[in-house]
Amino acid sequence: MKNKHKIVNIVLIAKSLYLYMNAVEIIKKKRNGGELTDEEISFFVKHYVKGRIPDYQKSALLMTIYFRGLSDNETLSMVKAFIASGERVDLSHIKKPKVDKHSTGGVGDKTSIILAPLIACFDVVVPMMSGRGLGHTGGTLDKLESIPGFRVHLSIKEFVSILEKLNVCMIGQTDDLTPADKKIYALRDVTATVENVGLITASITSKKIAEGSEGIVYDVKVGNGSTLPTYEKSKELASKLLQTSKDFGQNAVAVLTDMSSPLGYAIGNWVEIKECIDIMDPETKNSDQSGDLIEVTHFLAGAMLEAAGKVSSIDEGIEQSRRMLESGEPLKKFIELVKIQGGDVKYIKDTTLYPEAKFKDTISAETCGYISKQDALTFGLAAVNLGCGRKTIDDKIDYSSAIILKRKIGDVVAPGEVICDITGESAEKVDSTKQMLLKGIEISETKPIVKSRIIEVIN
Ligand code: URA
Q1: Considering the entire predicted model, what is its pTM?
Q2: CATH code linked to domain 355-444
Q3: Which atom number of ligand 1 is nearest to the Cα of residue 194?
Q4: How far is it, in rounded angstroms, from Cα 446 to Cα 178?
Q5: Which residue in 137, 142, 132, 138 sits closest to 173, CA to CA?
Q6: How far is the CA of 104 from the centre of ligand 1 (A)?
Q7: Which of 195, 241, 184 is nearest to 61 (CA)?
Q8: Is the CB of 117 within 6 Å of ligand 1?
Q9: Nearest CA to ligand 1 atom 3
Q10: Phi and psi at residue 300, in whole multiples of 5°?
Q11: Which of 66, 160, 259, 368 could join 223 in a cystine, given CB atoms 3.0 to 4.6 angstroms apart?
């Protein structure tokens, strides 16, 4: 018995030594400029997810990749390894096109909330797996969870069943789908290795392939409110996302959109849902401050309908999208979606019932002129400070807290006119948020040129 124990121990030690040495060799190869093979990447991902390779070795490899980059082959291997770490949703029995949209993240970016029910109204299936707020950018899941009762953590079985019934379901990453990405993303977040085009591509595309969509529209943000710092980097990311999706047989399009100022009038969680309800409700007169959001939403809808094979051009898709929104059907679909995912629809039917945050302040113009700057990064960071996002993983979100833009870039203001409202759960948070926002707003004597949010389409 004792000897058997000894042999088992020796085998275990030999196994961990083998893993340890192999991991060191792989890190060294990448560090020295080599290209990793399919087997090497799959080895690292598989054993890391199973807890056999420690965080410090995975961190070393990630940092090496951050500086060296990932070749196209390495990116493909990474995507394959991420997908293989979990299940893959099979939607082949639903005989309809399946299309999703993914945004690389922004401030006030809420297009998913409208697009998911809108596109589902065209008898296109939208299997939407979204994320939480990250750094200064907001997250669709946090916004959806501001609706009391809304469940974003569903089993794959329930996800598929809702898609069969409604054509649309909006969920978060599960433990079954690409668990390797979930674990590695958490490590990237704390090792300053998020902002790498290859790693971002592998992370995003693996989820989009595993969730079962056949077509995908990437909304790649450009400007200081986006994840990547320059136009060139955003464009590189768009090309790599497209290439990788196409390598896996997806019909993919990327749209570069401007994220140098917040999109729409609302920044927060519930207020962003409310802005979307206002846009979907044909009875409501939409705020002028939602114009840019409506523009981007219809453009992405046009691209999604084209990717689904429902129209022959984005322009035709935009036209159809406008007509569908006016019909009021997307709001009905959204109410069905909220209901089936456990949300309390009374707040959707009457948004005035939602509790307001306790403290309020405003920022007003001191001079006469045109709003020339509403810096997206500053607004995003201020929203996190207010409690709309998390500074650490355990932070609780204040769903009612909000920054509401009353004036947008290009609007004329007179002294004393309100530029934005700030509402929050503590007077201190509201005040410190106001101080942050003041640094991100500028008024000029000359009217700035207000360009379209759509910069470029790549396909
Ligand atoms: N979003 C993701 O899902 N992954 C990344 O790496 C970055 C943004």
Answers
A1: 0.93
A2: 3.90.1170.30
A3: 6
A4: 50
A5: 132
A6: 7
A7: 184
A8: no
A9: 204
A10: -65, -35
A11: 259
Is there an atom of ligand 1 within 6 Å of 200 CB? Answer: yes
184 CB within 6 A, ligand 1:
no
Provide DSSP, 111-127.
Answer: HHHHHHHHHHTTT-BEE
Of the candidates 98, 207, 333, 429, the residue annotated as catalytic is 207
Q: Residue 195: what residue type?
A: E
Burial of 30 (0-12, 13-18, 19+ CB in 10 A): buried
Nearest CA to ligand 1 atom 5: 200
Q: Where are the domains of the chain?
A: 2-68, 99-352, 355-444
What backbone torsions phi and psi does residue 363 show, to the nearest 5 degrees?
-115, 125
CATH number given to 2-68: 1.20.970.10
With a 6 A CB cut-off, is 203 part of the ligand 1 pocket?
A: yes
Which numeric CATH code is attached to 99-352?
3.40.1030.10
pLDDT in tens, the chain (459 residues): 667 777 767 766 767 767 767 999 999 999 999 999 999 999 999 999 999 999 999 999 999 999 999 999 999 999 999 999 999 999 999 999 999 999 998 999 999 999 999 999 999 999 999 888 878 888 999 999 999 999 999 999 999 999 999 999 999 988 889 999 989 988 998 888 988 999 999 999 999 999 999 999 999 999 999 988 799 999 999 999 999 999 999 999 999 999 999 999 999 999 999 999 999 999 998 888 999 999 999 999 999 999 999 999 999 999 999 999 999 999 999 999 999 999 999 999 999 999 999 999 999 999 999 999 999 999 999 999 999 998 877 788 999 999 999 999 999 999 999 999 999 999 999 999 999 999 999 999 999 999 999 999 998
Q: Which of 182, 195, 203 to mutate to test the pocket of ligand 1 (most atoms within 8 A of CB)?
A: 203
Q: Is the CB of 269 under 6 A from ligand 1?
A: no
Given a contact cutoff of 8 angstroms between Cβ atoms, the answer to whether 238 and 254 are in contact is: yes
Cα(323)–Cα(331) distance, integer angstroms: 13
DSSP assignments along 181-235, one per residue: HHHHHHHHHHTT----HHHHHHHHHHHHHHTT-SEEEEEEEESTTSSSSSHHHHH
Which of 129, 201, 204 has the most ligand 1 atoms within 8 A of CB, as the residue to mutate?
Answer: 204
d(CA 279, CA 187): 38
Structure-token pair, residue 402? 């909000």
Token pair, residue 442, equals: 């500028």
Q: Which atom of ligand 1 is the closest one to the Cα of 202?
A: 6
Q: Do 124 and 308 meet the contact criterion of CB atoms below 8 Å apart?
A: yes
Please say if 181 is a catalytic residue: yes
